[in-house]
Q: What sequence folds into this?
């Protein structure tokens, strides 16, 4: 009799501990991510915050670091093509506007969902074109969802006038990517 | 030992203890409910705290002032078509009596998604989509008027009456482009990141506020594609059409537009394809 009661309580205790630790840590992790500005409202990406049109694409901050910002949506990556300096350490920030999307670029797997920002740190060692395809089924146009990063030599990136994140026109990207 | 005896012993041994297996399971469920009840508000609270407050003004060059949240989705889809019919009287000079225009560069509105029409009227009114005529016409409308007139056009049948209007035979001028256009509609070009038109504009799939193109004027489509590509029209939220039209070659834009127009012409004269 005693052992059975003990077993029942043990079951509850172990379950509560495991479940409680998992739930607590995931909640803590999520709220910490949210408090660090990694939450966005997918409905108002175009109105406020870091994913407004002028911020998309590659931008170089005052300290010299390069950040690429993308929006993944049915069925295009915006911008569809971005030029970056080859070899530089790059911070890629991406969010989704409507559904889960994902891709693999330069050996790094990226997944993104509406409501939060995915950040990865990558670099493109050699100059050239890096294609990426959506690998998270997102609907009937999924097979065509593709983007490109064109890594150009550091000098050309600077010469293309992309330094200050002024991407209203993104002339440098157009020059590097071209019409296909 | 007989089987009956052994079974009885097993049953006796499994007599419920003070809480029993059922009690233990119930306690586990209670733990789950407790953590969910405590965890969700915490997450929601930090999420709400981290988002942009509603009173922040939108950026000056936003593509559109509309954002699709629960309120705007419900509002734009809940117009009154009967009231909209009266407002639509001032549309018919250009957009046709049953929503089919006899002017080539003016869009047909019959059967177009109400949310799309509502958003376009809002964008004309707020100056986010440029048009000399439409900006003036939309200026006096209220948001309610726009939802009603959008509802009216959205319930009109999107196939023209065969005997109704003979003025839109829009044949496909370049027959050699039919195959390319059809491929663009159905598969797009995966190698260049161009999704198929049908994945968003129907009938294969729809996304929010993408208009149906099935019975649209070819000249209107061609003009919009070119405007998206050049940036002259930029009211698509998060740039999907500017990106896609920009990736398409000029001859592809023309072929796709003519293909949709030819589809309309075929519907209009009741022509049955030989295939």
A:
């Amino acid at each position: 009799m005693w052992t059975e009661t003990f077993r029942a309580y043990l079951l509850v205790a172990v379950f509560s501990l495991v479940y409680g630790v998992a739930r607590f840590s995931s909640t803590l992790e999520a709220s910490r991510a949210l408090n660090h500005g990694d939450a966005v409202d997918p409905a108002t990406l175009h109105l406020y915050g870091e994913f407004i049109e002028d911020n998309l694409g590659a931008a170089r901050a005052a300290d010299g670091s390069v950040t690429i910002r993308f929006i993944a949506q049915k069925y295009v990556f915006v911008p569809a093509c971005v030029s970056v300096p080859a070899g530089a350490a790059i911070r890629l920030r991406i969010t989704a506007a409507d559904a889960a999307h994902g891709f693999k670029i330069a050996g790094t797997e990226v997944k993104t969902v509406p409501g939060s920002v995915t950040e990865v740190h990558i670099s493109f060692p050699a100059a050239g074109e890096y294609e990426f395809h959506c690998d998270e089924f997102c609907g009937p146009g999924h097979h065509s969802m593709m983007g490109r990063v064109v890594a150009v030599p550091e000098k050309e990136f600077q010469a293309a006038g992309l330094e200050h994140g002024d991407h209203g026109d993104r002339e440098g990207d157009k020059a590097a990517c071209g019409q296909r | 030992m007989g089987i009956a005896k052994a079974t009885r012993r097993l049953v006796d041994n499994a007599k419920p203890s003070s809480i029993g297996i059922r009690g233990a399971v119930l306690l586990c469920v209670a733990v789950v409910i407790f953590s969910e009840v405590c965890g969700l508000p915490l997450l929601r609270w930090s999420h709400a705290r981290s988002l942009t407050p509603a009173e922040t003004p939108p950026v000056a060059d936003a593509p559109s002032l509309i954002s699709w949240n629960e309120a705007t989705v419900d509002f734009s889809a809940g117009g009154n078509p009967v009231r909209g019919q009266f407002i639509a009287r001032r549309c018919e000079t250009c957009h046709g009596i049953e929503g089919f225009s006899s002017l080539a560069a003016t869009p047909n509105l019959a059967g177009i998604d109400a949310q799309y029409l509502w958003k376009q009227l809002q964008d004309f009114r707020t100056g986010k989509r440029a048009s000399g005529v439409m900006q003036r016409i939309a200026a006096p409308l209220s948001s309610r008027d726009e939802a009603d007139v959008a509802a009216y056009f959205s319930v009109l049948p999107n196939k023209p009456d065969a005997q109704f209007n003979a003025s839109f035979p829009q044949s496909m001028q370049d027959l050699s482009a039919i195959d390319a256009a059809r491929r663009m509609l159905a598969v797009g070009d995966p190698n260049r990141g161009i999704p198929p038109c049908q994945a968003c504009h129907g009938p294969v799939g729809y996304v929010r506020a993408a208009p149906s193109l099935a019975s649209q004027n070819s000249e209107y489509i061609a003009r919009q594609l070119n405007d998206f590509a050049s940036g002259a029209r930029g009211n698509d939220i998060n740039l999907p059409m500017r990106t896609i039209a920009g990736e398409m070659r000029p001859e592809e834009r023309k072929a796709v537009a003519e293909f949709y127009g030819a589809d309309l012409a075929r519907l209009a004269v009741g022509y049955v394809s030989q295939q």
